[in-house]
Specification:
The chain is of the alpha/beta class and about 130 residues long. It has one domain: 3-Layer(aba) Sandwich (Oxidized Rhodanese, domain 1). The protein is about 45% helix and about 15% strand. The longest helix is centred in the N-terminal third of the chain and has 24 residues. The chain is globular.
Length: about 130
């Protein structure tokens, strides 16, 4: 009887922990390239490219600010951004920008992530600048 009780309690705790972990990822939204492009036209947004300078030299989304996620100063640099604006973040494939979005939301920013990154953006035929 005790074993069954403790097993049930353990399951409840594990389930609660998983729900909390999943809820933390819900602090930012991930959108399609088309929706991302529409959001870019809004006044209170900043487009943030979190790729390396080498990646950016191959092309970027127009008017994007580059702050390298792998840089030692990433958190310090993003802290300088205007918190009254929505951050539209992207990287090459969407993974790095999702990690950056977590950092940004913890710092109090409203963040929207580009699904599939600039690779998906280009695959949809959307423009980049060099």
């Amino acid at each position: 009887m005790k074993t069954k009780f403790f097993s049930s309690i353990s399951s409840l705790i594990l389930t609660s922990a998983l729900l909390v972990a999943c809820a933390q990822n819900a602090n930012f939204k991930t959108v399609s390239p088309q929706e991302f492009q529409t959001l870019m036209s809004e006044k209170n947004t900043i487009v943030l490219d979190v790729r390396t300078p080498e990646e950016v030299s191959e092309g970027k989304i127009s008017n994007a600010v580059n702050i390298d996620f792998y840089s030692n100063t990433f958190e310090q640099e993003v802290s300088k951004l205007d918190k009254t604006k929505t951050i539209l973040v992207y990287c090459r494939s969407g993974k790095r920008s999702a990690s950056a979005a977590e950092v940004l939301t913890k710092k109090g920013f409203k963040v929207i992530n580009l699904q599939g990154g600039i690779s998906n953006w280009q695959a949809q035929g959307l423009p980049i600048s060099k």
